[in-house]
Amino acid sequence: MDAYDCVTTLLDIRTFGSKPVNSEIKLKILEAGRLTGSGINTQHWHFILVEGKDSLKKLANDSTTGRWVENSDFAIILLTNPKYGFHLIDAGRATQDMQLAAWSFGVNSCVFTGFREVTLRKDFDIPIGLNPTIVIGFGYPKRVISGKTKNRRALGEVVSLGKYGIRFNEDAYGMAPTKNLI
Ligand SMILES: Cc1cc2nc3c(=O)[nH]c(=O)nc-3n(C[C@H](O)[C@H](O)[C@H](O)COP(=O)(O)O)c2cc1C
Fold first, then answer.
1. Which of 4, 47, 103, 123 has the fewest CB atoms within 10 Å, i.e. is most exposed?
2. CA 68 to ligand 1 centroid distance, Å
């Protein structure tokens, strides 16, 4: 899968099968996060690798919008430093890089951002000064997913030409239709 196919077919999947993700792939996913560029190259982030049923259950209990993580193979809690105004952008970039790296190996993922912060901090020893910004759960799909398309607004609805509101006519660009299904 090339980078374009990877981006255009990635979906957030919340159900996972029991096949474990091997440590080499886990390491590559973490490397994808580590190697992401951050604002002024601050690299203020920290990645907590969460493995094992008990810890994943704890993580699910600490979540308000990501109970599904309990059935993932492993998860990463991404901490960022809120003293940098761009920390959420950095978190988003690192998250997407890790999700894309995972998907290039056929590993699905999804994210959540709703936490019970007090218990999450306590359960995973998260220090003051770093925020739990996003959690990504990973795993192989439960069953082969195919023919699923992305539910996205059309290019013409989200792109302007030159100035906001000036219609962008994608046909004039002769674009090949995006392969947005898996
Ligand atoms: C910033 C952000 C926060 C999200 N928070 C949650 C969340 O708390 N729980 C959840 O299940 N999914 C969450 N998602 C996943 C989105 O629902 C998902 O990306 C969107 O529905 C598109 O899914 P698709 O790529 O499978 O079409 C979040 C995604 C983003 C980008």
1. 4
2. 12
Question: What span, in angstroms and rounded, lies between the C-alpha atoms of 168 and 158?
Answer: 9
> Model's pTM, two decimal places?
0.95
Domain layout of the chain by residue ranges? 12-141, 148-182
Alpha helices by DSSP H, listed for 47-144, are: 53-61, 87-104, 117-123
The Cα diameter of the chain in Å comes to 55
Q: Which protein residue has the closest C-alpha to ligand 1 atom 7?
A: 112
Q: Is the domain covering 12-141 a CATH 3.40.109.10 domain?
A: yes
| 113 Cα nearest atom in ligand 1 | 8
